[in-house]
Amino acid sequence: MAQLEINNLSKVYPPDVLALDDISFEVEQGEFLVVIGLSGSGKSTLLRCINRLIEPTEGSIKFEGKEVTTASSKELKAIRKEIAMVFQRFNLIERSLVLTNVLTGQLGELSFWRSMLGRFPEEMKQTAHEKLKTVGIPEQAFKRADELSGGQQQRVGIARALMQDPKLLLADEPVSSLDPATSGTIMDYLAEINDQGKTVITSLHFLDLVRKYGTRAIGLKGGKIVYDGHPKGIDDQKFKEVFGEEAEKVHIS
Amino acid sequence: MKKPKRFTFPDLAEGIKPLLLDWLIWGYLAYTVIFLLDSYWYTQYVDWYGSLTLEPWGWALTVLGTLGCALASERFGISVGLKTIKGKERAPRKTWALTNWGITTVVLIVLTFWVGWLTTDMELGIITRRASKTSHLWYGLSHPDFTHLMNIDPELNDTILGSLVDTLFMAYLATLLGGVLAAPLGFLGARNIMGGSLFRKTIFYVTRAFFNVVRSVESLLWAIVFAIWVGWGPAAGTFALLIHSMAALAKLFSEQVESIKKGPIEAVQATGASFWQIVRYGAVPQVIPQYTAFLLYRLDINVRMATVIALVGGGGIGRFFFYYKSQLDWNQVGAVTIVIATVVWLLDYISGKAREKIV
Amino acid sequence: MNQETEIPERSSWPFWRNLGIAVLFAVAFLVALNRINLDLSLLIENFPSTLKLWSAFAKPDWSVFGEGVILLIKTLYMAFMATALALPFAIVLSFLGAKNLMNSPVAKAIYTAVRGLASVIRSIQPIIWAIIFVVWVRTGPFPGVLALWIHSVADMTKLFSERVESIDVGPMEAIRATGAGKLLVLAYGVIPQIINPYLSFTLYRLDINVRMATIIGIVGGGGIGMRLYSYINKWNFPKAVVLTMLIVLMVWGIDYLSSRLRERIETGGGEKTQEYSI
Ligand SMILES: Nc1ncnc2c1ncn2[C@@H]1O[C@H](COP(=O)(O)OP(=O)(O)O)[C@@H](O)[C@H]1O
Ligand SMILES: [Mg+2]
Predict the structure, then answer these.
(1) Among A34, A150, B316, C1, which is most exposed with the fewest C-beta within 10 angstroms?
(2) What average pLDDT does range A178-187 have in this prediction?
(3) Contact criterion met (CB < 8 Å) for B271 and A108
(4) How many domains does chain B have?
């Protein structure tokens, strides 16, 4: 049984935008899966359906054998604890401390009153500091999140994801708001996480990053899968198929 | 796919707005011209009734004439209304003052200033002519009499410092209670929360209208109402400040709620957090710092207002000011003024510094 | 693998600090409640004494409508005159009150004087200024305008100077590097950066002045407030109610217009930037 099984998944945004069109694939534990496609091809929708930030219209998603699409709110919370997410625009709580941002990754473990009062246990804080060290910014813990640069904010985003100790990491264009050098560092962290046996599913724009980091690539076009295989297999012919003729120059860089 | 364009009422409203604006501008222009003609032609005495009593045919002529001018300006492409509302014909290269917009604005401001000068009885000469009348005032301010700073004034049965504490407490209570009551109201007045069904929209509009109306009545006027209601004293003043603060803060709060970003909320949601955890960690941090800043600012405003609310029976340090003023005891007026200015200034400073830190 | 992560210095004092602040506020609240005697039950008990007031809303006396509109226009003109007359003074004073432009010892003294005076004048409510000016130039709209004017000058000077202090020095240095004099630096390095905020603050102040102009009449400063207060003193609520409604309409309208215009100025005339898509 694969870790993630997606069958005949479709998403229609009301009234009639077909964002995902009958998608099926499986992901094995430990894969580094890259989703590529033009803007608007449905990458975000796909990733967000997996942890149900977006309600799928049809089809089934099975994570470690548990059905996501029909999970009750309690089951869904349990599933979401196993799946971490990193966002293109970081989505940090900007006015809160960096440490608090990282600690939110463990909210699922915390009792109601403790979380309302913001009393995180000491060992949880210790772990949070460790995660910040893992992503190389231990000294920023007590700064407000909006004081950090974009690259640093994304590191906080990754630390927050690590805090969950997830089995699957979803990253929706994690480097699209960053400069190339910072992008490399962030991708290296994702690769490191992947090396520890965690599955990574990420959407990317740049083909060279896809080739360098991915163990498998899925190409989306108009909500349909047009490519599924090793990144090295994307030759010029395939590339044009995924991105369209005119996109060529923009994306090979 | 394209649907055929049908005539709808909003279309008509959109089309007519520029014309109405043009008409308004021309109408105002005519109004000022008539006023000025009246005021200089019949040099004797013109009040507002005088300037408004045109012959019946004059009214008709003005109304039609200005409408004609508005239509003509649209026809000849010098319409300010079209430009403002439709936002067309931007000419970035031109000097701003030379655009129709610029010319109209300048002309209207100059005319308004002219009419305003006449209608508010501006007469700078009086300032120098009657300057001597204020000498005792300056004398009192420079020779303040602090006798009752800490000694009870039997007439008012309080000390200046005591009433100062009252003033601060009034402002504090009004801000705190107003701020707490404003939060639920602010939610009801937030477009993003109250969108959707007709029922919710109705609540939204009713709430918005409620706090806009309450906000439009100054707290000094509210103090009159509450002085009648609960009798003269600091309680009346507090209620007045409270209701005005509540409305003002509810508006700010609702704007804050409207600007909540979805991203952080989704991020917290994705970690498997429960509903209240999402509210606590995703939504509240986006609202609270700015709202605290508003509260501090409001406290500042309320302290200022509380210093004068005694004028209409609201209690506080103003009682001393207005009482001594009525006794023409300028030295004591001076003392009270100095106390007020110091405290307000201090609070302004502290609240400003605290706001800087929070936001 | 499991080396000690060294944690930046920081104890858990924010929690205790916040708790302390909360307790302080709560105590102050209780003391204040006690001292002010804020009794909510009084609102219900004494409700009958306001019946005369509320019933006036049911049968307002529209005979004052025409007079009210004229007074309203007069009030608007008062606010306009105060703002318009305050603007040039505030502009000049704002440069003299900006720390970053005033470097020499003499200039520093001027800066201190301007900002100090502005703070003092601002701390005194327009209503109190109106009392002073009524003594000075006698009752009517003129002292009202003067009172709003002096408060506006002080307030706008403060806001404007703070704005000048926060300008970006880049453009200024670029102009200075070309060998331009002080005035040219002002004209090309400073003014383009402040013109929109100044406009926006002026509109904001106009809004405040309109509100203030509605009450400044209570002490003889002219405008609609003067008539309203005299009706209230005569317990003529049906007429007072009509004037109040007019005030509400005007203040609401000006508030709306001013905030719409300010929004437009602050976004540079364009549409608001859209939220990123998800
Ligand atoms: N909230 C939404 N409502 C309606 N349509 C949406 C929404 N979000 C995305 N879409 C549409 O769905 C399609 C896929 O979008 P998305 O998944 O964001 O693509 P990508 O992430 O690849 O750029 C696009 O056509 C987009 O316009
Ligand atoms: Mg996307």
Answers:
(1) C1
(2) 86
(3) yes
(4) 2
